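Entry 14. Structure prediction run on the chain below.
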Amino acid sequence: IDLTKEINRKTVLNKLNLSAPKGRIHGLIGSNGAGKTTTLKILSGLIPPTSGIARINNYDVQRTPELAKQYIGYVPENPRLYGALTVRETLEFVASLNSVPRDAAEIKIEHYLSSFNLHQLEDEYTKNLSRGEAQRVLLSSMLVHEPLVLLLDEPFYTLDPHSQRVFREILRRKRDNGTTILVATHLLDLAERLCDSITLLSKGNTLFDGTLTEVKKKFGQLSLEDMYIDLTDDEAVN
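Output returned:
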């Protein structure tokens, strides 16, 4: 509610009001510097807002972080893994950290190793992985403990086309099972195909917030890219 963040006296997020109910994929859309990453960092509890309230499953992220964070699966834009662990050890460690029973963890680990084509890398140390491979491991480690709220910062950027398709289908199934999914991206064509609703951001300000049906009703047949460029005049989408 009214999330605002100031950094070095500059407002990078200005009174954002965002609501993402269960069973919805909501897109945070905008170019670099729009405020997408700042929003996800506030919601995940990594940074505090200058003002406003962030809630996850009705728990205040600042006042009761331990309660809010138990529902969250967060994927930052730049993946960081424990380089001294193998791929399989990484998934086992995250499952253990989140108290996933051993038998259930093994089933989930096998499922995501297969889904993301990681079996041939399961004994490889994560420090030796390419960025795209590391992203697949990071996504798998997030999914293995079945969080109810997914906060995803540019999750598709380094994925190959096959992995992108796999992950889109996983997200749709999660949504259909009641998971709340917040995806920050500047890939507007992907957002249009994936998201049920969107918040358009530009330089920390909200330009539009609503469902894709409301987008079409307000802007007709304009694509998200055309609509964004129209709303931001000459601002480049990058």
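The chain is about 40% helix and 20% strand.
Filed with the rest of this week's runs.
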